[in-house]
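Cross-check.
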Amino acid sequence: MAHTSRDLGIAKDIDVIDQILDVDGLFLVDAGCGDLGLSKALAKRGARVLGIDPDPIQAEKNRQADVIPNVGFTQTGAQSIPVENTSVDGVLFPYSLHHVPADLYQAVFTELRRVLKPDGFIYVIEPVASGDLNDVMRNFHDEAQVRQLAQSALDQWAIPFFEDVSVLTYCVPVQYESWEDFKAKYIGASYNTQSYTPEQVSTEAVKEQFLSLGQASGFLFEQPMKVTHLSRLKTLSA
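Predicted model, tokenized:
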């Protein structure tokens, strides 16, 4: 198994993708696609993309949105992807793997091995639970445990099945205009409706920490990120 790692400094997610992946002509699955933002960017780079997301609120928004060339959408989780065996070049999880229920991880990665071509890949983008922005958010939404569960699932159910493993780290610049901008973003995130309430986001404690940690930089935070890029499925002996 080839295992590499490197740090890319300050970078946006799509810029890292451009460094690592040539998606032109590929058929990709955007798992946990949200508003299809990444799907659109991949399609602009020549890919055909199926966005999938189990969240019913976001799914309805996607169904009502304008048609995007070379992008489709289905409301489903990654444990049940409506495609043929060995038909997908790559599956991407943009900030979404840690939202998979723990009891579904084995089924998800079994499904990915079903749909991927032998030379296919998995590309997982996950925030790291550290830094000033994380310090603010953990007042109402501490994801350290679920992110660790996601990493453990990768270690157990994904990495052993691939020939090539690359780990990339970098920091994404995250800009807010104000406290109101920060608050509106997290209150409006439909996928977190069961995780915290608007009242928990809006407390004075959260506001004070956001202002104290963000004012000096104009509310520009650096979010540490980790990408796990797995490629080329191993041929398992019978």
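The chain is about 35% helix and 30% strand. The longest strand covers residues 162-175. Passed to J.P. for a second look.
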